[in-house]
Design goal:
single chain; 187 residues; alpha+beta; Topoisomerase I, Chain A, domain 4; Gyrase A, domain 2; 4-stranded antiparallel sheet
């Protein structure tokens, strides 16, 4: 029975870790005034009939704190990449000079900063919901074990371990969110 409890706790920890990783990935997409190639992740362009990530058809680099350069490996890819960026609606208009595309990030207004902080907060809330759902599933599994003969004390201890794991991971979500909000609100 203890092996089953350990397995449930390990699964819960792994799943919660994935939720935290997903949160960090989603927060990297929210720009905080600094140019980053990760802002273009998830944007696909049409490449010989197949949707392909921009970083697989072009060299994406950061020229300075507010400028991203996209240099396609094939000149005929300039227009599709430009179109994909416009359709992605990331709030930046691409500048095409015939050789490369430049993305100039405008300075963030106070209103836009608050909007980005609110979006970050929403992502953090999604992570918390995922962690709570993982907790619920783990506790249900423990209750099933209890029906199969696990003692009540062992079940209570296991549930407490799951709750401690949940509290720890939600605390981590709060720290990640606070760091992102600080990054967004700093000028």
């Amino acid at each position: 029975m203890q092996a089953d409890i350990d397995l449930i706790l390990d699964d819960a920890q792994t799943s919660m870790q994935k939720a935290l990783s997903h949160l960090e990935y989603e927060l990297t997409k929210i720009r905080a005034g600094k140019a980053s190639p990760s802002m273009l992740e998830g944007i696909n362009t049409e490449y010989y009939g197949a949707p392909t990530p921009i970083n697989q058809v072009a060299n994406v680099s950061v020229l300075d704190a507010r400028t991203i350069s996209i240099q396609p490996w094939e000149k005929n890819m300039l227009a599709p990449i430009e179109r994909a960026i416009l359709q992605a609606n990331i709030g930046i208009t691409p500048q095409n000079d015939g050789v490369q595309i430049r993305l100039f990030l405008p300075p963030l207004t106070e209103e836009r900063r608050k909007e980005l902080a609110k979006r970050s907060s929403g992502e953090a809330e999604q992570a918390k919901i995922a962690i709570r759902n993982i907790r619920r599933d783990a506790i249900e599994d423990i209750k099933k074990l209890q029906k199969d003969g696990l003692s009540e004390d062992a079940a209570k201890d296991a549930e407490k371990s799951v709750q401690d794991l949940t509290d720890k991971n939600i605390g981590t979500v709060e720290k990640i969110l606070a760091a992102k909000e600080k990054e967004i609100m700093s000028i």
